[in-house]
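Students often ask why we bother encoding 3D structure as a string. The short answer is that it lets us treat folding as translation between two languages. Here is a chain of 133 residues written in the first language.
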Amino acid sequence: MKNGLLFVLLLISLLGGGCQDKSYIVFNREEITPENVLDADYVFSRGERVYYVVSLPKPIVTRQLYIQVFKRDNKEMRYGYKLIYGKTVHLKDEQQYYFTDYFVFNETGLYEFKVYSKDNPTKELTSNILQVR
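And here it is in the second language, the structure alphabet:
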């Protein structure tokens, strides 16, 4: 009996946990539109515009995002991470579920985008990595 109940609870938690909507970041070479939002690129050239979109499954109460860009490099202090860029974004009414912008990298390397909300600035909403050659 106990094993059956444990199995049912485990099954419910696995099936229910997989249904959560998550935030994500997608990178592209062209300005992001509904037609090309799924055409993701993760390798770019130096000096090339990297367009990105941050999706939000539900609106953020404060309508503010913190976006940070780190460069992964073992030559740097702080365990190989160097903060390249940090920005607070105020979402407009039409941007309740997404934010889009672009970034230009002039150095080769591996870069990581991290996104936080002002609602809970210690919990990462999403992150993603790209490479610049």
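Translate back mentally: Residues 1-19 have pLDDT under 50 and may be disordered. Keep this in mind for the problem set.
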